[in-house]
Amino acid sequence: MNRELQAAKQALEHLLVDGVHDASVSASTSRKSEFTVDSGKFNLLRTTLDHSLGLMAIKGHCRGTVSGNSFEEEAIKAAARDCIASAEAGQPDEAWEIAREGEGSFVSGAPEPDMDKLFTRTKELLDSVKAEYPKVMLEQVVTAHTTHKSVYLNNHGVQYESTSGSYSVSLMFSGQEGEKSSSFNGAYLITDNLDTPFLELSNIRQNLADAENQIHTKPAEGKFEGTVIFTPDCLGSMLYSLIGNYVTDGVLLDGTSLWKDALDTKVVDERITLSMNPSDSRVVNGEKYTGEGFISQDFDLIKNGVLKQFMLSSYGANKVGKTRAPNFSYAMIMQPGDTPLEELIKNTKKGLLVSRYSGGAPGTGGEFSGVAKNSFLIEDGKVTTAVSETMISGNLAGMLKDIVGISKETVEDGTGSLPWLAVDGITISGK
């Protein structure tokens, strides 16, 4: 019996005392081996081992949760006592529930590392950036392999075991020329193999080229309403904010979501289909089961502009009388369009190509306002100068009703697949 399964069984046994009618345990171990490069020089090779234990108990319709990081028996007993005490101190709510059936054993990705090849690929990346992007300063590079073993058990006989492995690449860099430099930028990706040089994965080449071209910037002139083309990286963060504002537990439970009554109605442009697909081949080690013990299944959040599903937990679904989300992976897949990126740019009279957005949380209605970072001005169908001190503002849902086009090109970083998205009606404020 592996340590994760043994720890989970011990914890579940200690949770099942009088009055506890639902209990679940998740136990996992992550083993991470990584190379760290600072300012172009290897300075660290280390391996870390982390344990994680999550306990949940429902007693008298009151729910308690506890997390820990030890598989030692005394620590497990203490965690179980704390979890039950947490439930006893809670407020009763009959909406709490966990899965009643399910089992499976999953192996995915690359569970065993090839550290020699990882080192070779890392050095190759450093050498290639130095040769091909001489104005880029790699502040830090971290490449790693992580093996993750996890177990989920509950008192209804639901049991899952999962073993997965992946390689990750994290870059922090800026463009530098003399005393001038661009703002910091970064890139992150995961992959389940080392067949392809890191420089050819995701959107790393474009990000590095952009850093060189952002050393000399100027603010956009004046205030105007124009077209913004969001890169896949930036689009991902905007979509994440949109989901949080319109379709998750919190905003549906408190009634602030503007989409609370919009299921099966058109909420955005019909060209938009956004899915959460952890089983997609472009998603590395996608979610196999949810934290509530349900097998994960792909689903369309928005299909042809129509809202098809809320991102509700079983608790949230029970509270608002809707169905729970089939997964919680945020493995976002947006269907590409049929317009080349080059043509999206060519058709833009005046606007911005935005790679990063920095701003506060959107308002209840989805209004956002913040700084366009790592971005370029588009004038008369051409990308011209890099911009600084330039604000953009708009509405998350509103802008998706007013799209100009979706690129046929997409970027895959191991967590999903997204295109470039061009939208009208964004207020751009410079000096």
Principal-axes shape call: globular
String of helices and strands: HEEEHEHEEEEHEEHHEEEHEHEEEEHEE
Helix content: 10-25%
Largest sheet: 8 strands, mixed
**What's the number of structural domains?**
2
Question: Which structural class should the secondary elements be placed in?
Answer: alpha+beta
Briefly say what this structure is.
By secondary structure, the chain is α+β, with helices and mostly antiparallel strands.
How do the helices and strands line up, and which of them pair or pack?
Blueprint: H1 3-15, E1 20-38, E2 41-59, E3 62-68, H2 73-88, E4 103-109, H3 115-132, E5 136-154, E6 159-177, E7 180-181, E8 185-191, H4 204-213, E9 217-218, E10 223-230, H5 232-246, H6 249-253, E11 274-276, E12 299-303, E13 306-307, H7 314-320, E14 332-334, H8 341-346, E15 350-359, E16 367-379, E17 382-387, E18 391-395, H9 396-401, E19 403-412, E20 417-429
Parallel strand pairs: 4-6, 9-17, 10-15
Antiparallel strand pairs: 1-2, 1-5, 2-3, 5-6, 6-7, 6-8, 10-20, 11-12, 11-14, 12-13, 15-16, 16-17, 16-18, 18-20, 19-20
